[in-house]
Amino acid sequence: MRYSKIVGIGHHVPETVITNQYLTTVMDTTDEWIQERTGIKERRYMDPAKDTVANMAAKATRLALQRANLTEKDIDFIVFATITPDYFFPGSGVLLQRELGLESIGALDIRNACSGFIYALSVADQFIKSGMYKTILVIGAEIQSTAIELSTKGRNTAVIFADGAGAAILQPNEKPGILSTHLHSDGRFAEELYVRDPGSSRPREERQPEQILDTTHFKVVMNGSQVFKHAVVRFLEVINEALEANGMKKEEINLLVPHQANLRISQFVQEKLALRDDQVYNNIMRYGNTTAASIPIALSEAWAEGRIKENDVICLAAFGSGFTWASALIRW
Ligand code: UT7
Question: What is the secondary structure of 262-287 as a DSSP string?
């Protein structure tokens, strides 16, 4: 049997640090409110002079390749999870392929928001298992700072979302590796967290340039409490689903790396599963919610800090827009 294994993990975040204190100068909010409700202390915003989703992903890739002792030329497929591609189309996967100087390998974009990285990992896992590809680059990368509304009107989302990129390299192995992935969605809740425009199902006159500045273009709409309520239920469900599918108990998880949505969500999940602090990794305090990038950034930092060792059981779990939710159980 052929399995896939993560052989390298890396990340990159932009240099510009945006503190809660800074946000209090552009909207009606406080450091206390943000920390108490979300756990976030600071986050990173892109620099338009040098950062793009694709080049941040390229920097994360180079770190992952270096840690895996591989080079760009070894990559034979890219799966790129983002909801904030550099262009409306084509996707950021091809821009990364160009940036890495790779000729004609396939590049696939995944648009599953906060669950995007696990969806991408699952797709890559199937390609490796089937024997179609040998070295797959899996990316989660976002630039959200250019879309959020930095004003009191947008404060429920502006204080949360931020920028960053993470990369994982998958290769075949005789032993797992990725033990399982579980993917879910429920589109009944699509409009609880969404950006409506530039959507295609609009009359032509509403899609003209003069409408670009209307209130729905690139504006994140989130029913925060609704998302929160569903998130805590689905996180637990999909983690338990992964454990049951592998005949494992929660005590066997060495490290849970949840999507960094809100520290309160991670703490709720930790408490319900009765996991110790050393069994859960959180870095939302430093980076905010980076959507598809949050899991690979957290994985990369946890690995660098020595929190992930050979043979450890790592559980990834995510919930977000769609709604979508997903988990991956990995033997490192
Ligand atoms: O990545 C996956 C998807 N996203 C998530 O998982 C996020 C899930 N949801 C959340 O994290 C939380 O719902 C938030 C952090 C977004 C909001 O926290 P909340 O406790 O659910 O607040 P709320 O939206 O119910 O609003 C409570 C109050 C409101 O004021 P009133 O109406 O009670 O007077 C808001 O206007 O807090 C106010 N508020 C703020 N106040 C200061 C909302 N945002 C802010 C803010 N600063 N930034």
Answer: -HHHHHHHHHHTT--GGGB---HHHH
